[in-house]
Amino acid sequence: MLVSDLPPWFYRGLALVFGALWGSFFNVAIHRWPREMSVVSPPSHCPHCRTPIPWWRNLPIVGYLLLRGRAACCGQKLTPRYLFVEIASALLCLAVAERYVIEQPGATALEDALVTSLLFFFFIGGLLIATFVDFEWLEIPDEVSIGGTALGLATVTLRSPGPDVVDVAIGAGAGFLAVHVLLVWSWERLTGRRGMGEGDPKLLMFIGAFLGWKGAIFALVGGAFQGMLFAAVSFALRRGKGEDDAPAAKDDEHAGDTWVPPPPLELSDGTTARLKDGARQLEVEDDRGRLLWDYRAVAPADDPLRRALPFGPFLALGALEFLFFGERLVDAYLDLFT
């Protein structure tokens, strides 16, 4: 069969349903993988009271709306993330169908177009999972980054249009090494603290395995720019509300050193965690005293960069932008110099 043998509305309807169904699975992975739980067993159950959820109450999007965002078993409020991820998954699957099926020449083999679409949709699913896990846990599951990298490298010849074998090999390897050497290892040696987490280089490796070296560079540069813009806007909004003036007043009120910090928590591998600054700051150090993580619930007014900000979501955003618009944007930019 050829792409032209079926009408566009069929592909669009199928993509919306398929994407919403997989969005339900992505929600399961977002909840379970950071907790080191299987996504297969036990079956779907209420996150509050552990009651099994029957399939008719687990329908994507529809189930959440019919239940009005509350669990039918115990009445507890459900996070709106469930609805958002399912809608986003459906819409992104539709975008993939438009890009890799409907917009392809009518003489393209339908099987090739569907395989390419399916692989890029799973790539997008990995980005969705990484985004929401990083927002909540400040980590990126290896199931996404390492497993996704293996899938991307193994299926490079099945994705058309897409980068070739050399491009994805360079993209995966250089993407990982560039971030790990420059922004993790070197930054730690220069400043004594981590510039990025260990998950960010592996996520860029995953992106390079699907989008090639151009996509990896675009995701890194575009993600960094958008991350800095987000941090600047957030800081400006907080300053506008006067939130950054609150810590000084509280420090004056408790200047008598009435708060006694608890003893540091020491793990078997030598890692130490301690609370400071009236329990508003958490520091984690390794067995050699090097700072691994420094989180402040309220950062000083003159140091907005001390606030914890996950970088994975911005890498994922840059990767999505390149997947759908990147080649055109890069070509238009290069045309300015030719």
Characteristics:
single chain, 338 residues, 2 domains, four-stranded antiparallel β-sheet, globular
What's this model, at a glance?
This protein has 338 residues and is mainly alpha-helical. It is built from nine helices and four strands, in the order ααααααααββββα.
Description:
With 338 residues, this protein is mainly α. It has 2 domains: 1-137, no CATH class; 155-327, no CATH class. It is built from 9 helices and 4 strands; from the N terminus they run H-H-H-H-H-H-H-H-E-E-E-E-H. The protein has helices at 8-32, 62-66, 81-102, 110-137, 142-154, 165-191, 199-241, 246-253, 312-335, and strands at residues 265-266, 272-276, 281-285, 291-296. The chain has a 4-stranded antiparallel sheet, with no helix packed on it. The two termini are 41 Å apart.
From the helix content, strand content and strand pairing, which structural class follows?
mainly alpha
Order of helices and strands: HHHHHHHHEEEEH
C-alpha termini separation: 41 Å
- If you compute it from the alpha carbons, what radius of gyration comes out, rounded to the nearest whole angstrom? 23 Å
Report strand %: 5-15%
Report the count of strand segments. Answer: 4
Largest sheet: 4 strands, antiparallel
Which oligomerization state do the chains in this entry correspond to? single chain
Order of neighbouring strands in the sheet with most strands? 1-2-3-4
Shape: globular
